[in-house]
Write a structure and sequence with these properties.
By secondary structure, this protein is mainly α. It has helices spanning 2-6, 27-48, 53-80, 87-105, 115-135, 147-163, 167-187, 190-193, 201-226, 232-266, 270-301, 315-334, 339-354, 360-384, 394-401, and strands at residues 336-338, 390-392. The protein starts with a helix and ends with a helix. Strands 1-2 form a two-stranded antiparallel sheet.
Amino acid sequence: MDQPALDGTDSVADDPVESQPEQRVAWAELFFDLIWVFAVTQIATALAGAHDIGEAARLLLLFMPLWWGWVGATLLANRAGGLVDQALGRVALFSVAGCGLLMSVAVGGAFGDRALVFAAGYVVLRLLLWVFSCRLPGGSAGFRLEPFAVAAFAAAPLFLLGAFLDGPARIAAWTLAALIELIAPRALPAGLNHVRIETAHLPERFGLFLIIALGETVVAVGGQAAGIDLDGPTYAAFALAFVLIVLLWWTYFHYGAPAVRHSLEHSPEQARIVTDVFSYAHLIYVTAIIMIAVGLKKLLAYPLSVPHSFPELLLAPGVALYLFGFCYARWRMFGAATAQRSAAAVACCAIAMASPLLPAVATAASVLAVLLALNGYEAWIVTTHRPLPLLRLPRIVRRETQR
């Protein structure tokens, strides 16, 4: 397969596997995702009004429990299989969705008068996921040290405690809770080792969340363009923004997504792929796309202006972070990042450093040129069957595979 080969399947044996019916995404899961569409919009809207990097970091902190709530529900749906589209499965999924909606409504005031609403919604969400995890096949009726239990009984109570604190104390409590959420899947990988992973369903679900995030870029650009007078520079910015969004899609779905599914199907360490590539790398992708959405919105508003506010500077760093996410994911899957995506990420970092001195449209054009060059180069590699230029980190990979 040409596409997976671009992302390193040359290092993974393409052994035949027994054909089994694939688990498809259920209609209930698509309805569930609508809540997180709203959540992403709420985070992006708040980020567009951030005044500095500290405020942006606090807003992205709120995205962490929303993200892990979605990941937890998705992993449970993967375990449940066809049960998720039966009456009880739908009720379970929608109850979690209701908690997510409550949290999303509270995002704008989470560091103010809606802190308790946000935290309480998350506590209930996490308790529900833990209960459902225990009741699914392979679950345990007793307490077991695994990510769902740690999130429900360590991270979630810290969010609740933080709601009763003020200022730096609240931020400290919520940061600690987010770190626990972040570390638990990596520190307790055995929690996934006994779980059946449906290798068609999981890549599709995480790909759909990428579509949710990319949809926010479309809404940001279209919404901004619909509300202003259009002139030559604005039309140019509009065209740049649309092509850039298409290239973001292309970078993930044309080459990256097939490689992820291939890795999940053939890796003997599925739990590591689920944790490192799906949970962590996709968190990087989605965070980056939210930043890009804000940057594109500001691009349409001020195409010829030299950036004078923090949100106007988010476009190039967002694209750099997006590309670094692919480097991390491919390293975790195959033991090496590709040189071209690493170089493209570094180039976007350089553009980000220069962007305070450039008109917004020049920054967008520069980032677009990098993405065009990257995808053109990768297409050339595939069509000419040339070897990949790789940046290998073999020692770390060897230690993991020997465990």
